[in-house]
Amino acid sequence: MGRGFDVCLARPEEAATCEECLESEFVACLVRQSGLVIAGVKPAAVFGFRPRASRCQDDMVSRAIDAYARRFAAEGVMMHLLGERGGAQMLVVWRPRLVAKLLESASNRDFLTRRALPATGADALMRALAERMIACYARHAEFPHEVGLVLGYPLEDVEGFIADGGRGSIARGRWRVYGDPRVARKRFERLERVERHVRRLYSEGVPMRELLRMAAA
Prior knowledge:
Layout: H1 18-38, E1 44-49, H2 58-74, E2 78-85, E3 88-94, H3 96-102, H4 106-114, H5 122-137, H6 155-164, E4 171-172, E5 176-177, H7 181-203, H8 208-216
Antiparallel strand pairs: 1-3, 2-3, 4-5
Helix pairs in contact: 1-2, 1-7
């Protein structure tokens, strides 16, 4: 496992084995669901991976996650398994430098402190958020909506959703909007363009390593 880091596996029909098919699916999932983190424009992404290949075994999925977590870490991107939900393995992918940048804001730090989360240190914050998401996926707690901050949502939108569950939002797109909808629409459009660009590059043969390094350049 890990071949898809250096070689584009965008054509799963060319896979010769179940393991190759699963790896192709996994990399495609990473590009599709965490493309904005890969592109360096979003601090973190939380998503699930459920292989379509019926012959795939649990140990293959575990080995794929472990292999790519190691390769991602070498490029300054972290990946952790959060648990299972509905047959999907839930993952968080994040860029420490972008999470650390969020902590430069006094208002963000104040929000995190009020939510009983670490306000200094990207690793400490992500560990605490991961613990809350793990508890959620194990059905021991409600979903921690404060994670929206590291998913790249504006603070006012995160606080607004926590306060009323989205009932008072004035617009919606990738998240519920409580601020200026025109600013939000422009942001949604930019994120959509970046996402399409990353997916197009991958479909044209750019491997994961190069996608990650383009963002770091």
